[in-house]
Amino acid sequence: MHLPGGVPTSHADTYARDLLPPAADWPLFDYSAPFLGALPDRLNAAAALIDAAVSAGYGGKPAFIYEGAVWTYAQLRDRADRIARVLVEDMGLVAGNRVLLRSGNSPMLAACWLAVLKAGGICVTTMPLLRARELAYIVEKARIRHALCEVSLAEEVELARGQRPELDRVAYFTPLGAGSHAEARLDGAAAGKPAGFPAHATAADDIALISFTSGTTGQPKAAAHFHRDILAVSECWPRVYPVAHDEVVCGTSSFAFAYGVASLLICPLRHRATVVLTPRPAPDLILDAMARHRVTSLYAVPTAFNALLPELAGHDLGALRQCSSAGEHLRPALWERWRDATGVAIVNGLGMTEMLAHFLSESLTVERVGSTGRALPGYTACVLDDEDRPLPPGHRGRLAVRGPTGCRYLGDPDRQRAFVRQGWNVTGDIVEQDADGRFWYAERADDLIVSAGYNISAQEVEDVLAAHPRVVECAVVGVPDPDRGSIVRACVVLDDPRDGHPEMARQLQDFVKATIAPYKYPRDIVFMDSLPRTPTGKLQRFRLRQG
């Protein structure tokens, strides 16, 4: 099998590649930027990130700091090599196999991610909050047999294995790979392997990552990213939001998010920086780590900046020189409060799972507070009307972008054609471009709820609530919230409307939390006698957002 550029794939297992959309449905990819032209037809992103760093003399430099422990670039490469040997020699991984990764941000998760790519596998990194039902869907969709999981998160994986027995090759680890937990067998297995592992000769356009993202139709979408894409984003975004060799970075987003993996793994490793990780993105842990390790660059979502503000007292953030925001709209009032409290401006930007990282960003000087900035070098962006025609400055429409990365949904032709139109990736964001080329966010064009940086499908929450025995009908919308940007509101019709009391609301919230990731639960529940509909039966969602 050959790739679009004529280079043979290295994957023996071509299941994921076979699910890629037809080339005619791909967006137009642009590699014309001079700094992208040197990417070879064959490359392994893990080797480019870590082997090249050690070869360039950065082996002794700290790559990750976690709970006081330091992993140098050489130690990170060594651990990734040994894990790659476990995957291939003990777990039977062949190139193209998908590997589910489940952990909080940790050096060991980074090593596992690199090991999978180095062995020619495909990383499917999942959020620690996901429940068995959600994991089982991912396993089925991507046909996953292999999983590497932090031992403290084993319960939901084991429940998922009960639903999807094909997930039969699972190894557990501790965050630093040296724990005494009896079930953390990956730690010992990796330590017992010899050093060194030659990177698999992947093609630049072999799939490296599958990222699952929520949409408006309920089930997550699987977006594929190539080895080439990983290197591309490591070159584009840092040209506006730089990552210097002497940077010490920290952040609040999970490696399972595009924002998290780009800001806390791909870009800092590519540019030989140091990353400080915390077990959880709790404000006290983040601020303590920032002060102790003299963090220079912070990546967070607006909700996290809001949560950090009241806890700033007593923490020395004197080393901080730049901050990045993404994941939801950054309001000017928050920008002002953070700048007044820290003296550091927040650089707003926009990215998405389908693009792997940022494609819009303000400059470090933040010329216009509240703007999402201009297209990054290597990308082109515009505003489209309802007929997919570019609009002039000053008009609102749908944001469209193209560049070296873009949307490739696996096994989902309808969604692919809805997202990619006339070569553009059409994001679903309603924006306006000003005369200077900056983009200004207005709202979402679909029913995706963005709350505290999390993408939440209204349809998915509705499906769970509808399964409750007391719920006759329900609808879910997002409503504005000063702290989280938006929150999930569930409008519910019960079998007996007289039971619409706070205790019933709590029961429904607990039901959702026990079924899907807790961050998706409806923080606001409104009991109704009936849902508002048009004479033709169409649900009037705008009325549910009122009041």
* Cα-to-Cα separation, first versus last residue: 57 Å
Overall 3D geometry? Answer: globular
Label the structural class.
alpha/beta
| Annotated CATH architecture of the domain at 243-445 | 3-Layer(aba) Sandwich
Class of the domain at 243-445 in CATH? Alpha Beta
* CATH-assigned homologous superfamily of the domain at 243-445: ANL, N-terminal domain
- Spatial strand sequence of the major β-sheet: 2-1-10-9-11-12-13-14-15
Reported for the largest beta sheet, the result is: 9 strands, mixed
The radius of gyration computed from the alpha-carbon positions, rounded to a whole number of angstroms, is 23 Å
Helical content band: 25-40%
CATH topological fold name of the domain at 243-445:
Rossmann fold
Structure summary, number of beta strands: 25
Q: What integer is the average pLDDT?
A: 94
